[in-house]
Automatic annotation (TrEMBL):
Identification of the protein by name: Metallophosphoesterase
UniProt keyword annotation of Mitochondrion present: no
Pfam families: Metallophos (PF00149)
Calcineurin-like phosphoesterase domain segment(s): 150-319
Transmembrane segments: 33-56, 77-97, 103-121
SUPFAM superfamilies cross-referenced by the UniProt entry: Metallo-dependent phosphatases (SSF56300)
Keywords recorded for this protein, A-Z: Hydrolase, Membrane, Metal-binding, Transmembrane, Transmembrane helix
Listed CDD domains: MPP_YkuE_C (cd07385)
UniProt organism field: Amycolatopsis halotolerans
Length: 376
């Protein structure tokens, strides 16, 4: 019964995603018969192929070629669907203005297609660029004067995957090193796929320079593949893997604890010892020493505030990645991006440095966060 419901949901979602833009772009404008037939065939083939491509690309076989086509299709149809819905307002304006058929639906179709094309082109450029730096000052009252001005660079959600972004990875590392941070953190969702398939893209991260530490935690996507293998591989690249553990850094007599916990999906992964364990990560910590916690999902701040963690660094949301998907993300997470306060705990949520799936970012730019920690 669960399987039947899942299939029914997928069928309904595909019909809605492809059917709405088909009606706006093909059906309602009443094009000549040849145009209507060609448009219907294009949407029909895309709708039938899409689920197959996603299963082949992101299922057990992990066909990168299928994933690339499926991901682009997903991004394109999501943007077309969104703006097909929104341009119904334009249809109403044209009706009130006295514009007659068939001009009215054809104007709507043209505007929909033009807006979608602009957003997809600009969204692809944003997704594929080296992320710009977002500088933020964070005041930690317990931070000692010796660590005042500590520079923490944050990357997250790199999602190395079906597109070979080795060159992008090298440029990302060059930008990080240009910033000369004291500490660099990767807050999870490193790659999609096995170490064997993705290590070429990930290995440039071994060149990141940070004199006081490079820290990495798992995200949910590691648990769709080889979480422990990625922890081991990042450790081999010289990163400190905060797998429910912590590391103390010191400078000029001041101390700061960097702790990290697994993503919640680790608890159901079947891997021994995986799943978030904040008590283990903070075991033996000095209550006078401020704590920076790496936790992939912003909602993990609920546990962090109970332990009086000073600062949590997260990712996961991508800032929504493709507008207006952020509305769905907000149903599950307390914040999309930026610095917020949750009781005694401050939370910095990065929009992420890469992208998952569709190579587009629409109204949700990527970033390298550069947090400068300040004492009171």
């Amino acid at each position: 019964m669960v399987g039947v419901r899942r299939v029914a949901f997928v069928v309904a979602a595909v019909l809605l995603l492809f059917g709405e833009p088909w009606s706006v772009l093909v059906l309602l404008p009443e094009w000549p018969v040849a145009g209507t037939v060609v448009g219907t065939v294009v949407f029909g083939v895309a709708a039938l192929s899409f689920p197959v491509l996603m299963v082949l690309g992101h299922g057990p076989k992990q066909s990168d070629a299928a994933a690339r086509v499926g991901d682009v299709t997903l991004g394109a149809v999501w943007v077309l669907f969104t703006w097909s819905v929104l341009t119904h307002v334009l249809r109403l304006v044209l009706l009130v203005s006295g514009v007659d058929d068939p001009a009215r639906p054809r104007i709507v179709a043209g505007v929909t297609l033009a807006v979608a094309a602009v957003l997809l082109v600009s969204g692809n450029r944003t997704a594929m660029r080296v992320p710009p730096v977002k500088a933020v000052d964070v005041v930690l009252p317990k931070l000692g004067a010796g660590l005042d001005g500590l520079r923490v660079a944050v990357i997250t959600d790199t999602h190395y995957g079906p597109l070979d972004r080795t060159r992008w990875s090298e440029r990302l590392v060059a930008e990080l090193n240009r910033l000369r941070p004291d500490v660099v953190c990767h807050a999870g969702d490193l790659a999609d796929g096995s170490v064997a398939k993705r290590r070429k893209q990930v290995d440039p991260l071994g060149g990141v320079q940070a004199p006081l530490g490079r820290f990495y935690i798992t995200g949910n996507h590691e648990y769709f593949g080889e979480a422990q293998a990625w922890l081991d591989h990042m450790a081999s690249l010289g990163w400190d893997t905060l797998h429910n553990r912590s590391t103390l850094i010191e400078r000029d007599g001041a101390r700061l604890l960097f702790a990290g916990i697994d993503d919640p999906t680790g608890a159901a992964s079947g891997l021994p010892g995986h799943g978030p364990d904040l008590a283990a990560a903070l075991d033996g910590s000095d209550p006078e020493v401020p704590v920076v916690l790496l936790a992939h999902q912003p909602k993990q701040v609920a546990q962090a505030r109970e332990e009086n963690v000073d600062l949590q660094i997260s990712g996961h949301t991508h800032g929504g990645q493709i507008w207006p998907f952020h509305l769905l993300v907000r149903l599950d997470q307390p914040t999309l991006s930026g610095l917020t306060r949750h009781g005694p705990t401050q939370l910095y949520n990065s929009r992420g440095s890469g992208f998952w799936g569709p190579p587009f970012r629409v109204f949700a730019p990527n970033e390298i966060a550069l947090l400068t920690l300040r004492s009171a």
